[in-house]
Fold:
Amino acid sequence: MARIIVTASGGGHTGYAVAIAQRLYGKAELLFIIPRGDKWTRSKVERYGRVVEVSKPRGPRDSLGKLLLRMPGAFFESISSVPGDYEVFISTGSNHSVPPAIIARLKGLKVYNLESSVRFTRPSLSARWLRPFSHVTVLQWEEQLKLHPNGVVYGPFYELPEYEPVDKGYILVTGGTYGHKLLFDTISELELENIVLQTGRVDPEPYRRKHPEWTIFRFDPDFGKWLAGASVVVSHLGKTVIDAALTYRKPVVIVPNPEWTLTAGWEDARILAGKLNAVVVEDIKPRTLLEAIEEARKRKPPTYPDGAKKLVEELLQLV
Structure:
């Protein structure tokens, strides 16, 4: 049986790991490298294989100084965490993936380096840093060849559905792992009753006090059930909108988080919205958000080839 290591570095990066694992389960021995202390990621991937933890040098709001300070420790941890008797290493992105990927290459593993599905105008730092150490740079859209001319386009990576899509009438609002306070504050100003709000690391209590009729939680490892039942999904620029549109066929509103200055930006959001037939909110105010939700209800997502399936088929032939 093939032996494959996959990083699951939190948020959408964990979603890519799950998409790969779903298609590899029972066909390969899987080892996941996750951020130290990330219980949500562990709950998502441990059903598919063994899990080890390596420190994540930098979060989206941390300074470059913290990255430089913590990176040596992550490399040291990766030396013992990356076994040399596996055949393939898949980086799903984030600075967390960089040290174990480089160690994997030094130990002789074949390295696949995945670019994010929301990157169109500039490459992610992790994909760019790992390019010299990678055998294959995995792209999800043809447009990404401008960022990585030697990459290979597989198609978008999205999770397999765990529930039958239905319309239960609620609007699902989510900001991913770190949350999106500006989005949450804005939707809180609207007179909408049937809202399911996933706050991540943003404190949910102010929204619970103001809207006792809403369903509100920080995290749910069984998040697919909320995507499956939504009428519309409102989310930041991340992998959630990919799964909402391509896994569960839901209309999507994309609301980029202006606090995340080092991630994909407004032009990336516009391009991705065109790919998903989604609506982008650039002026984050109650009226524009409400109009975007109503416009999204009229739209249907397109279909695309299964990028994760194509990669898995290649890996199984390789090993």
About this structure: The mean pLDDT is 95. The longest helix spans residues 64-81. The domain at 170-296 is CATH 3.40.50.2000 (Rossmann fold).
